Amino acid sequence: MKLSSSKTFIAAAISSALLLGACQSSKTAKTPAKEEAVEASSFSIPYEKYTLDNGLKVILHQDKSDPIVALATVFHVGSSREEPGKTGFAHFFEHMAFNNSENVPLGANRKMIGELGGTRNGGTWNDGTIYYEVVPKDAFEKLLWIDSDRMGYMINTVTKDALEREKQVVKNEKRQRVDNRPYGHTGGVISSHLYPDDHPYNWSVIGSLEDLQNATLEDVKKFYAKYYGPNNATLVIAGDIDIAETKTLVEKWFGEIDKGQPVPAMKPRPVTLDKTISLSHEDTFAKLPEIRLTFPTVEQYHEDSYALDALGEILSDGKRAPLYKVIVEEQKLAPGASAYNSSREIAGEFTIRVRANSGTDLDQVKDAIEQALAKFEQDGFSEKDLQQIKARQETQFYNGISSVLNKAFNLASYNEFAGSPDFLQKDIEAIKAVSKSDVIAAYNQYIKGKNYVMTSFVPKGQADLAVEGATDAGVKEEKIVQGAEKEVVLNDNEDFPRTETSFPRHEPPLGKTPLLTPPAVWSQTLENNLRVLGIEHNELPLVQFTLRIEGGHYLDKPEKSGVAYILSELMMEGTEGKTAEELEDAIGILGASISVDAGDEEIVISANTLKRNYDETLALVKEVLLEPRFDPAEFERIKKRLLTGLKQREGDAQAIASVVGKKLLYGEDHILGIPTSGTIDTVSSITLDDVKAYYRNNISPTVSAFHVAGDIDQGAVINSLHGLEQAWAKKTVAWPDYSVKANDGDSQLYFIDVPDAKQSVLMAGQLTFPGASEDYNNLVYANDRLGAGSSARLFQLLRIQKGYTYGAYTYILRREAMSALMAQTSVRANVTKESLDLLSNEIEVYKDTFTKEDFETTKNIVIKRQTREFETLGSLLSVLQDISRFDLPLDYLANEQKELSNLTLSDFKQTMAKYMSPNKMDYLVVGDADTQLERLNDLGFGEPVVLDIKGNPVSE
């Protein structure tokens, strides 16, 4: 997995804007002593840190709230350690490290951790690489075995064949993330022009495919030897551990790994531009014009980075933000605008990005950006704006340490990039210390009148929309050639040198099976028929709650699809007593978050708040629910933004497959065959009166449930809801009746042409049963070994064995009306036929090849996986929502464990025979017709039916 920067890494892994902005300071923290214990404070994570003789920095954090353990290993090596002509190596080694090592068999890392009931992944960004796992505590020593073998005994397994095989997987990832996506090349274009050729940020993290293809075994081994020693890494172990025992195990498994070469620290290397650079590109997959202005700024740990982070929010976030005011509200050039600072280890950049409405000239948008900046210079901003940014920090901090894995991420990243896990304290202090004058000074120093790199990415054939005078960006598109890649089949018997160790590094046994205790759930129904369910969870001073209103898109009229979606957006745009701006301020001052989202079968209002602000946050939710403003101007803006998004979706192969796949699955006459957000035709016809009528007819406590988890008991919750109980009158909601018909004939293959696609999206599906069916759990269990993760057959076959894809999965699309079994993958274009053949065949033979061992593995996975399902407030809310949505008993989790233990192999196979029939599945391919369509004729599905991007047959 590629991550574009340390900030992206932290944002993706921790989901905490506080920590994202907080990894910077003007001062480097003091390095702790050889061994130290740090006590907890209101803004700290207790830990013990020490260093092994080989230089590995080890941090231990004990958290016994759940029977799980997380490991995070950060190596201080990313793409910035590479050199021109030899790029992509760090990301490549992230991939290789999951394959095998001297004592861990090929594919076992991806396969075994999932089968142990755990989860694992990794990421690479400019400055570092991380590997992380979470497992039930009985598998803790197995994890130490796997991780230590990867750290110390992996490189000998990197043979010529292994190198060639993994190159294909990395290429697939690049095609999926960059080449086959709208605006995918933008980041690479900006980096190559913002930074000099020899600057470590000049090239993308994923690197050049040409460099990677030309890489020799000697090249990659030399890079590995230089940067992957234990002395260039931090290992964090967090969770239900015994500190003394863990130290013994760490010494056993990691202690004798050889120390690596000394790795010099990276010195800051910020850049300046002597002129503004304007570049353009006609994007094959983009449907809307996009402009970005990227200014060079400062490195992480620099004091100005804090003010730049705040500046980004002030310029673009919220109704008062100047970019929003000018571009969105006044000139109506785009549905939104963003501005953000990204400071990395040696340099930083500040970006202003606007994806404009269809057909909009980017010269107009550029002028509007300049006007917005002039407005900022003239009007400034209030102390209240700055305080709202800071008010979110405490809530975000607690959310950012709500799981042991998030704690591990924090401890590892601060230690490796700031010198100490304690650096969190200084970050928070620095964020709080940002003043208005700091923000204005940062703007004047880095933005006002400064040069920048500007990109104009426009749809193919619409070059006239680019900013006038822009030069071609010179994007090189990969040519997909049939049969170009050599087929490489790896086996675990390959001969490679074995390192002599002081003890046999055999797989250790499992520890004592952890006790699984499902959370206690309470339920109560109010007088207005609103059902309330809760779980008290006192680990952090947080409360999260959702109000789920049954219906959503299902209650849309087909010809007005998108009404529920627009209503969900409009409910956050003011109330009868508050303008949109005033509502935003009221939420912001509490440091809370409130959102409204529409799905296929529900509208959900979600809130996250500190315990002390629960009552005030609930009062705002009540106001949003019962007193919508229905502002006509906001309605028109939301509608236009939605239409813009729907237009952009037409250039995304994944989105096309998702939309048309559901249409094929449910049929064009079923509401679930239409996207939740509607289509351009249906949304264009929606009026504000339609939205009001939907609200009037369908928002009722009789079809709703309130779910709450956190530091609050049942009595307090019920007391807090008295006002809502009295004010929200019950009403009857009319429910439409749609018939669904599963495919009972032969499978049909459909094809949608996306010219020049570098990958083909493959999708298959069949209808199964209503979501509340007693067969649901059985199908989930039966599907596990087929496609439910990296340890399952499809992933192992299509990625590990063949190298055709970045990932391949099957899953159950659970819907109350009718669920479906789905399969999906994206493969390189020139193996479309081969991949589809393998996919359909694997489904066909699954039942007959499902063994007793598969059966036992599945049972173990499902039982052990529950150790990770009650850790965060979000996961607890999911439990509550399943109970109310599918009318499950409060103790359904315990019942499921009993039911699973009583199932037999025969039960599994009966489920497979009933719901996993390849001749009842329809198949969809979204890819390049010129090179792939004809090849699909002899797969046994008959001649493919060619559809357009809306799912309509293409007449010949």
UniProtKB/TrEMBL annotation:
Keywords associated with the record: Hydrolase, Metalloprotease, Protease, Signal, Zinc
Keyword Ligase applies: no
Span list, region Disordered: 495-515
Entry's family note: Belongs to the peptidase M16 family.
Residue stretches making up the Peptidase M16 N-terminal domain: 57-181, 539-642
Source taxon at top rank: Bacteria
Protein name, entry field: Pitrilysin family protein
Family matches, as Pfam families: Peptidase_M16 (PF00675), Peptidase_M16_C (PF05193)
Chain ranges of the Peptidase M16 C-terminal domain: 215-391, 685-861
Keyword Signal: yes
SUPFAM superfamilies the record matches: LuxS/MPP-like metallohydrolase
Organism taxonomic ancestry: Bacteria, Pseudomonadati, Pseudomonadota, Gammaproteobacteria, Kangiellales
Skewed-composition ranges (Basic and acidic residues): 495-509
Leader sequence residues: 1-22
